[in-house]
Amino acid sequence: MYNHLQVLLLSVVFFFPFQSSAQIGFMGVSSLKPRIVVLTDIAPGDIEPDDMESMIRLMSHADLFEIEGLITSGGWNSSGRPYPVGWKDSLAVTIDAYEKDLPNLMKRNSQKSFMSLKKEQGKQKIGYWPSADYMRSRAMLGSLELGRAMIGEANRSDGSDHIISLADEDDDRPIWILAWGGANTFAQAIWQVQQERTEEQVKDFLRKFRVYTITDQDVPYHIRHNDYPFSSHFEMRRDLAEDLMFFWDESAWLSQNSLGSSNWKEYAMHIQNHGYLGAIYPKNKWGVEGDTPSYLHVLPNGLHDPSVPDMIGWGGYFKWGLGKDGVTYSYTNHSGETRKVSQKYERYFYPAIFNNFAARMDWAAYGEGNRNPIVKVNRSKGLEIINIDAVPRELVVLDASSSSDPDSDELTFKWWVMQESGTWKGKMEISGEETSVAKVMIPDDASGSTVHIICEVVDDGTPVLTSYRRIIINVL
Length: 476
Hints:
The chain has 14 helices and 17 strands. The chain is α/β, with parallel strands linked by helices. The protein has two domains: 2-366, Alpha-Beta Complex (Inosine-uridine Nucleoside N-ribohydrolase, Chain A); 376-475, Immunoglobulin-like (Sandwich), CATH 2.60.40.10. The strands form four sheets. Strands 3-2-1-4-5-6-8-7 form an eight-stranded mixed beta sheet. Strands 11-17-16-13 form a four-stranded mixed beta sheet, with no helix packed on it. The protein has a three-stranded antiparallel beta sheet with strand order 12-15-14, with no helix packed on it. The longest helix is centred in the last third of the chain and has 31 residues, at 336-366. The termini are far apart.
């Protein structure tokens, strides 16, 4: 039944001073989680179930993220009025369901207990399921109003104060601000820092963050097309681009909405009523989980470095360019070739993304299920990108025969070139592209270029699960 979904969907898809983030390991490799802060306009399911759906999926992947903040705030769901404080109850309901599913979810990683809350609030490693008490300690209110005009002393909140405290921690990992609604709370935190610190200290603060916004929701829904200056996002993109890495998604969320809606029967069969989280997973009214790409972009799965926008992962493809407002610049994907490439990969990866969710909901429901293959290429185990230097006419051997599966499933291999991420645009021959050992002959005229090769490993469990490693060949 899961394979049918995969076959169906596969047939239907200038400047900036940032480089790679810290490398991340997986499945037994000691490595820290990526840090995320969610700004959500979560609402009751009968009003708009989208954020609740995305929050449930996030909880089912909580072993992969250091969830530093769950901040409820204004967005399109509140339709231009202040965010109703009572809507925060939907977040509490989700955390309660997560708590009930935790005993089963923890079996996936053979976790027997929790660290103390104080240690949980420190640094977490990939594979650790945080306690529900930890989640509750990270849930709070942010900015209730929308728009840059609201920024100021009266707009302070627990959320804006918390964001500042996170940046002040002794931690080199970037903090990803994931805006499911408006990013007004983060803009407020910036304003507070600007009032209290030197210009250089403000720059240092900004450089600790990456912002991924699901469209621009710091405006009322009905005026979003003609009044971008209303938005605090506009001001961040216009004034802070030199120091703040800003992703403005106008592609992945739309693909997720439409693909989810057209495949709703799969959610009804494999997500709803699977465990306590599945029991509260609401039926969609419009799209399905439009906010999910924000953390799919950060999810550590060996496919990419999220701080490199054109490296393409589960959360879309981005290039530096003029935004949809026609005024500000950011990393975006709203039009042209960038939009085309992003949609291509959004469709391609969707089956693997869905199956990953379905398998985790099996664990929530039954305390057992399928787990992802462990990919090892040229003796390198983990998720970090593999860099190889080569010269023209050299035969590069890529050996993934030591890859394994925690459930002893049979593995199949696929090696392919992601041309959009590399600088080499010519044809690249791969011998053994469907075996565990691939051979790549570097072309005569490839000197000075980079080639991005993806090792995609799929098991035969139920549902089938996919893991990745990216290899970058630097041709000297």
